[in-house]
Amino acid sequence: MSDGATPRRPGTSLSVRLVAAALVWMLLLLGAGGAVLSTAFRQSAVQEFGHRLDALLRAMIAVTETAPDGSVSLVRSLGDPRFEQVFSGWYWQVAEPSGRLIRSRSLWDSTLPVHVAGAEERREIAGPRGEPLLVVERDLRFPGAAGPVHMLIAGDLRELNDGIRSFNRLLYAALALFAAGMTVAIIIQVRFGLRPLRRLSTDLTAIRDGRRQRLGGGYPREVAPLAEAMNAVLEHDSELIERARTHVGNLAHGLKTPLAVLQAELHDTPGRAVAEAQLRTMTRLIEHHLGRAAATAGSGRALGSRCTARPVAEEIATVLDRIHASRNIEAEIAIPADAVFHGPREDLQEMLGNLMENAWKWARGKIRVGARNAERRLILTVEDDGPGLTPEQAAIVAQRGARLDEAMPGWGLGLGIVTDLAAINGGSFAIDRSDLGGVRATLTLPGG
């Protein structure tokens, strides 16, 4: 039964939230870790490349000699064939104080820009063909030389960059594989960790559908208190319902006897007609309100109750057919065997009993009781070929909150109880005209 508030949509799945949070954090850490490793490897590779050039520069210094005229020359090869290959990207160059240049064969007729340096210095420049070069250079004084000799050696950074790119590809491929593995592990961990909650949800669905009465055991320590508290609520709810039923039954039994005694005593009393009329009104009101109180006390909203509708309708039809045997009413029970009401059998008996009794009362010769399932709802219909409703009665019945027992004279108090029981069980009740010519009463109840 709705209280008029807009129903809230379910929030995002807890599993999705946990997995998404873990993945975001993992990707941030992997991205940061990958950037740090890539930067560290590049710095280490550049430093190692510089050390190689330093070693070559010291080897070049070792094979450099000064002639008597003050000129310098390299008396031996540096041992790396790339210095002999034209524009290989590996070059050396010596600038004498006089300005004369001695160059490696790889430079051919090109020169590298000279940067005056005291101590050893590293810098990056563009080579003869625009290739990136790392240069290590320094000024040295040789015995017999007229001044400082500028010595320079350069290596091709493309080799270094290719190595760094290969490392980065391998690094990011490994990180992607690691991320995929961690994603699977996170999903498995979350699903395994939330399994008790899914089991709790399944148990609650089973209770709502009437397949069980209580939550099972075996929950982990974090969930067990919740399951125990819910079981305690279910047990307390059942006790309250049973106690209310008992009180209502006792009250009904206690009132019927004094009313019967009063009715017997008024048999020969003057003015008994008025007194009997008032007594009948009292009886009628007591039955009405006790019926509604019993309906409320026997609420079908207690979890765990369910019953099939066809046997209930057939039992009621058998009894009513015997009571009204002289009228030769043809009753058609068109209820599927899988039509299930999620609520107490007694409530369904009370609702169908009232509707079918009214149909038998007003039918001329045919009654049809049908049912169908629609979106977890059970829709029951009771139709007859009687006189039906007048437009005025139909308009009153359509009004929200209208009392059917007052709007439709002759239909009795049972319809008010049907309305209350349907609402209590989370359903609704409506009346319109049947294609048989009479009334069609429709009950929409939890089922499916």
Automatic annotation (TrEMBL):
Xref: SUPFAM superfamilies: ATPase domain of HSP90 chaperone/DNA topoisomerase II/histidine kinase (SSF55874)
All residue ranges annotated as the Histidine kinase domain in the record: 250-448
Protein name as it appears in the record: histidine kinase
HAMP domain span: 191-242
A Pfam family per the record: HATPase_c
UniProt-annotated location(s): Membrane
Transmembrane spans: 170-190
Catalytic activity: ATP + protein L-histidine = ADP + protein N-phospho-L-histidine
Matches recorded under PROSITE patterns: HAMP, HIS_KIN
Entry's EC annotation: 2.7.13.3
InterPro entries on file: HAMP_dom, HATPase_C_sf, HATPase_dom, His_kinase_dom, Sig_transdc_His_kin-like_C, TCS_sensor_his_kinase
GO MF, one annotated term: protein histidine kinase activity
UniProt keyword annotations, A-Z: Kinase, Membrane, Phosphoprotein, Transferase, Transmembrane, Transmembrane helix, Two-component regulatory system
Top-level taxon in the UniProt lineage: Bacteria
